[in-house]
Specification:
The complex is a heterodimer.
Chain A (H helix, E strand, L loop, with lengths): L1 H37 L5
Chain B lengths: L6 H22 L5 H6 L6 H12 L2 H14 L2 H25 L7 H9 L1 H15 L2 H15 L3 H50 L1 H8 L13 H10 L7 H9 L3 H34 L12 H9 L4 H33 L9 H23 L5 H25 L6 H25 L1 E3 L4 E4 L2 E2 L3 H17 L8
Antiparallel strand pairs in B: 1-2, 2-3
Helix pairs in contact in B: 1-9, 1-15, 3-9, 3-13, 3-15, 4-5, 4-13, 5-11, 5-13, 6-7, 6-17, 7-15, 7-17, 7-18, 8-9, 8-15, 8-16, 9-10, 9-13, 9-15, 9-16, 13-14, 15-16, 17-18, 17-19, 18-19
Classes of the chains: A mainly alpha, B mainly alpha.
Chain lengths: 43, 482
Amino acid sequence: MNAVTWIAIAICGPGALFVFGWFLRDLLRLRRGHRDRRQPPPA
Amino acid sequence: MAEHWTGIDSAILAAYMLGMLGIGVIAMRRISAFEDWFMAGRGLTTPILVATLVSTYYGLDVTFGSSETAFEEGVSAFFAYSAPFYLAYAACALLVAPRLRKIPARTLPEAVAHFYGPSAGRAAAFASFFYSAPILSVAGMGLIGHAVFGWDPLLAAAGGAAIALVYTLMGGLLADALTDTVQFAIMCLSASVAAAFALHALGGWEGLSERLDPSLLRPGGDLHVSDLLVYGLVAMSPLIEPAFYQRIFAGVGIRAVRNALLIGLVIWAAYDWIMVFLGLVGRDMVATGQLDAGLDSSSILLHVCGELLPTGVLGLFVAGLFASAMSTVDSYTLIAAGNLVYDGVQPLRKQPLSDRALLHWTRVAAAVTLAVSLLLALRFDRLRDAWIFMATVLISTVMVPMTVALFAPRRARPRAGAAAAWTGFACAMGLFLCFEIFGVYDPEEETRLLLGAPREWALLASLPASALAFVAASFGRPAEAR
């Protein structure tokens, strides 16, 4: 039961932060994509 | 709990509330049409889908309900009540989502109407509205405000609901999904920190299991077979869940949706286990005299955390509780408003509403839905009663037609779907009305009884009635080949 509880704590703590970090990475990529599209293509 | 609350905790809670409003303002700048507002432009990626699914589906009913049930009945709260849902999440990811992505729809009622026509769609819209009106989480915010600050429950519920409404009106599903992502991180992190503190304070499970009654550690508990059947049927509700459907349609692709549901399944299970563990900690603290034996079991979680968590962490935990409630309130308000205007009014009009009018009236409906939910939240004595009513109405109306539409090899007749949906809806509403008028409250069973049957069994009559109506209306001309 101890191990199960620690696994649950790891999933809800670091696991949730990992998903949040993944979301931030997607968001940054999206913003970079928008910025790149606004810039004129190289000559 | 109020005696443990400090200025630092208040600052954390205030920062959270302001952050949510800020996200609403940012999301508003990206809204130009109804599709942007209601479906976030159909661009939700895996991490944002995980966050919005987990935080939306798990509100205060699960948070308080699991800890309360564990406090009273032990680990069966996890094995008998929560575990059957995991099968439904997996089925939703692997079987339902791929089929749904093939149809042109935005909502559950629209999916029903796609298979069975507008009449069945209207019944589904009514059922989805009753299910989605965020009564439970609004009432839950009232409970937190009262327990933590001693505020009037109506004032606390209205304050939390108003903030959720403002950012939802501004940014729609995009604001909803973005705030859900932050709320997801806060609610999971705060639960995880609270469990780690509790585990450390009690010296692990060994200490806990030595002091607790062994019956509390039996996975099966002492449930009646018919209760297990009802809970098993209710656990199938994710297969027809309006918030799941909206997110399945709003996902960027089927792979993102499937992965999000499977990752969500693991996080839901971990969250459930933590709430069950904290409920058992509460039981232990009452037995050892650290908590008053006369405490209300529904708020045991608040008292456990008030005793165990230090300054700052307590503020994070209460922000996590508000996050859990507000993420549910905003999402379901949006869905219920869509049920009224997009699924209810729009199909009845000869001239469809313009995009701008649709956006305007759905925003108005969101405000009306939340105001009605606030009033209803104070009328139910017990949150569980409201939840059973809402789940019974949705399952009775939509489960039979949608299951047949998604899994039967041949397309059923439209009138069969309409007959099943309206019969299930009328039967569920009628039975609950009969229990209200003619039923007698039994304090031992903690429910209303009619002819010896508890109110929870209404589903055991209304679901077969819906299935019978479906079969009866299927006779006649041969079914059209798919």
